[in-house]
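wait is this the right file?? whatever heres the structure
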C-alpha cells in the first residue's frame, strides 16, 4: 500500500471504472470498424476504427473519453459507405 500512496503523491492515479469501461467499449467498436473497413476496402471506416482503438491512450479525463468516442462513432456512422 505504501507504493500506491507514493505514486499518488507523484500525481499518478488509477482510472475510474467508468473510464475503463469506456476505453474497452470504444476499443471493441474500433476493432470491429477496422476489420469491417479493411474487409470492405473502406478507407475512412478503417482509419476511424484505428483512431477509436488508440485515442484512449492519449486522453486521461473520463468525460473527454466519452465525448471524443461519441464523436468518432458519429463519424463512423456518417462514413459507413
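ok assuming it is, sequence goes like this
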Amino acid at each position: 500500500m505504501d507504493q500506491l500512496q507514493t505514486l499518488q503523491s507523484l500525481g499518478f492515479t488509477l482510472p475510474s471504472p467508468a473510464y475503463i469501461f469506456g476505453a474497452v467499449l470504444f476499443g471493441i467498436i474500433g476493432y470491429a470498424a477496422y476489420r469491417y473497413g479493411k474487409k470492405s476496402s473502406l478507407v475512412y471506416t478503417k482509419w476511424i476504427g484505428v483512431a477509436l482503438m488508440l485515442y484512449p491512450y492519449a486522453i486521461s479525463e473520463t468525460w473527454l473519453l466519452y465525448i471524443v468516442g461519441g464523436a468518432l462513432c458519429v463519424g463512423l456512422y456518417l462514413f459507413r459507405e
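Residues 22 and 66 are 7 Å apart (CA to CA). so i think its the right one actually
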